[in-house]
Amino acid sequence: MNRTAIVTGAGRGIGAAIAQRLSGDGMAVALVDLDGAGARETAAAITGSGGRAIAVAADVTDEQQVADAVTQTAVELGSPTVLVNNAGILRDNLLFKMTLDDWDSVINVHLRGAFLMTRSVQSHMVEAKWGRVVNLSSISALGNRGQANYSAVKAGLQGFTKTLAIELGPFGVTANAIAPGFIATDMTRATAERMGMDFTDFCEAVAKETPVRRVGVPEDIANVASFLVSEGASFVSGQVLYVAGGPTV
Ligand code: NAP
Asked: What Cα–Cα distance (Å) separates residue 4 from each residue in 13, 165, 174?
């Protein structure tokens, strides 16, 4: 079955790996990203190896840009029936130092962004009587020092996911969340820098505390996304799958 997927924040990191994996699964993929350059590079790699992909520069917090991105995808690749809400940012700080802008920016990209994207794509899914939504949560949803904003949105995305599963289930649409542990990407590299730590040392320290004794790589998350959007996962909905190299509390 030819499916069209939209992956947000697909210019690098986890989003780029998911886009590549879904293309490998036979889907056409729209790579939505703030800065089009990374998305263009990944889309070119996909088309270069025989897949179908487009890069779409859009800010997921902007209602009009989201609507335009979804329309462009439908016109160029076909009706999108798979959506991976992956775009994300960090603005870490202890609560007493957290600015209103730190709070609002994180709420907007993760929650407003996922809301706008899903609201825009759901009509295609409902019309097709088939759809898959995957939202990127995090182990930080369980609480993490310095991440009041981020843990709030990642917990919020879990509630959003469960509600989507309830509302859209009757139309053949499933919604699930992936909650990764530590994945080596630019995001975690920036965290190491902020803490004044060498990234390799940082990863080694995290690996020591992780039952499988390694940190995650973007492909670990892409593998799970691939399953959740597959035909065979049609009875899995409203779930939060922690992908963290060990159990979470
Ligand atoms: P990353 O390397 O920082 O990539 C994030 C991507 O999101 C970038 O391509 C960025 O675009 C894009 N983005 C940011 N704001 C956007 C906006 N307003 N509109 C469209 N795109 C936007 O992050 P990552 O580590 O791959 O993380 C991906 C997702 O997994 C995030 O939701 C993150 O919270 C979650 N996650 C990550 C980890 C981890 O350990 N890495 C753990 C748990 C959960 P630009 O390149 O243009 O800035």
From this structure: 21, 20, 15
Residue 183's identity, in one-letter code, is I
pLDDT digits (tens, 9 = 90+) for 76-89: 999 999 999 999 99
Q: Answer yes or no: is the C-beta of 191 below 6 A from any ligand 1 atom.
A: no
Note the pLDDT of residue 42.
97
Catalytic residue flag (residue 150): yes
- Pick from 89, 111, 215, 217 the residue to mutate for probing ligand 1's pocket: most ligand atoms within 8 Å of its CB: 89
Residue 16 C-alpha to ligand 1 middle, in angstroms? 10
pTM above 0.90, yes or no: yes
The closest alpha carbon to 88, from 124, 56, 65, 117, belongs to: 117
Residue ranges of domains in the chain: 4-181+221-243, 182-215
Catalytic site residue from 130, 150, 202, 242:
150
Ligand 1 centroid distance, CA of 160 (Å) = 18
Structurally, what CATH architecture does the domain formed by 4-181+221-243 represent? Answer: 3-Layer(aba) Sandwich (3.40)
